[in-house]
Design brief:
The protein has 14 helices and 15 strands. It has 377 residues and is α/β, with parallel strands linked by helices. The chain folds into two domains: 250 residues, Aldolase class I (TIM Barrel, Alpha-Beta Barrel), CATH 3.20.20.70; 70 residues, Orthogonal Bundle (Arc Repressor Mutant, subunit A), CATH 1.10.10. Helix 1 runs parallel beside helix 2, helix 1 crosses helix 10 and helix 2 runs parallel beside helix 3. The protein is globular, with a radius of gyration of 21 Å.
Length: 377
């Protein structure tokens, strides 16, 4: 088992753009849900037949949990399997939760990597996103985390916001670099259904940033971060000195992982599984050992599509030798690959096909060209 992901579905407030599974009304059942997650871990112990390399607490907002609650979940994991040497144990946190006491608690529990959701250093944009922190708290959080002793810190940023000017985006990047993070995740704002942002766009209250300007912000970011020693190892992820996110890298490379908690996904190499996205139904069903998930066995065709979609996003690209496990690259796929090579969207090496900087802007479209649909396995 390469990694274990724990989804903590609690938030103080709803960000305008977020469509992840979470609730802001959870106090009456928080403890019951955490105990159900511990129970799920125990019920799935037979799946952990290899050592555990990574543990990742995501959400939602895991930093809302107290030391005892986080410790209970970690203890449950330690009971079911061996934690390998030098594991990566990540906690997603909001800046306002990074108090001196909590930072020390997290270190004592064994967390060695923080992923801090900064998003922006502009208070107006943070308010528009309905974030629960301001720019000063964002800066203080990273400084305090480093001072507390965290050796690996990742920060999240968002670009492509309505009316976000190029100079303001570059200013955000400069302020982020001034904090000396080891890793930066930067995502383009997308309009997801059932979000406040989606409603604003539909009613004309918000006009999304033009694609051309979003693309320019992406290109500016890639060049700027490269000049400052950050390697783009996945479309939205940049690392300094090889500090890749090991947990997420395992996702992109098709390794096994187990997802715990409501809405969490799992993958064992051939079978995908996902938990129900309902907090109360989840903890009740787990408690009764009734079905709390659905699953599907992926065909060879579907495994190929997963392989293309995830690997193409990374610096490692589509490995030609690994493609042989799926029957190799067929004639139809070769036609598309040849076209994308000609248009400078793909780069070919002896071992792989990888996206060019230009190609990264069209990653999903290029991947879909290579998908296998209605083919025999």
């Amino acid at each position: 088992m390469a990694g274990i992901y724990l989804h903590i579905p609690f938030c103080k407030q709803r960000c305008s753009y977020c469509d992840f599974h979470f609730s802001t009304q959870y106090t009456t059942y928080k403890q019951a849900l955490i105990l159900a997650m511990c129970n799920e871990i125990q019920l799935r112990k037979t799946e952990v037949i290899e050592g555990i390399d990574t543990i990742y607490f995501g959400g939602g907002t895991p930093s809302l949990l107290n030391k005892e609650e986080l410790g209970l979940l970690l203890e449950s994991i330690h009971k079911i399997g061996t934690i390998n040497t030098q594991p990566e144990i990540t906690l997603e946190v909001n800046p306002e939760d990074c108090t001196k006491q909590k930072l020390n608690d997290w270190l004592e529990l064994g967390f060695n990597r923080l992923s801090i959701g900064l998003q922006s250093f502009m208070d107006a944009d943070l308010q528009w996103m309905n974030r629960s922190h301001d720019a000063k708290q964002a800066i203080k959080a990273v400084k305090d985390a480093r001072k507390a002793g965290f050796k690996t810190i990742s920060v999240d940023l968002i670009y492509g916001l309505p009316n976000l000017k190029q100079k303001d985006w570059l200013d955000n990047l400069k302020k982020a670099l001034a904090l000396s993070p080891d890793h930066i995740s930067a995502y383009c704002l997308t309009v997801e259904a059932k979000t406040s942002l989606s409603s604003w766009v539909k009613t004309g209250q918000v006009i999304p940033l033009e694609d051309e300007l979003q693309n320019q912000q992406f290109n500016d970011m890639v060049l700027f971060l490269a000049k400052n020693g950050f390697e783009q190892y996945e479309i939205s992820n940049f690392a300094k000195n090889g500090n890749y996110a090991k947990h997420n890298t395992a996702y992109w490379q098709g390794k096994k992982y187990m997802g715990i908690g409501p809405s969490a996904h799992s993958f064992d190499g051939e079978k995908r599984r996902w938990n129900i996205s309902n907090n109360i139904a989840y903890y009740k069903n787990v408690g009764l050992n009734e079905t709390w998930y659905k699953e599907e066995v992926l065909s060879i065709q579907e495994q190929w599509n997963e392989f293309v979609l995830t690997n193409l996003r990374t610096k490692w690209g589509i490995n030609k030798e690994k493609a042989l496990l799926f029957g190799g690259i067929n004639k139809n796929e070769l036609v598309f690959i040849t076209k994308h090579l000609k248009n400078d969207l793909l780069i070919e090496t002896d071992e792989t096909f990888i996206l060019s900087t230009k190609g990264k802007l069209y990653a999903d479209g290029i991947a879909s060209d290579l998908f296998r649909v209605n083919q025999l396995n």
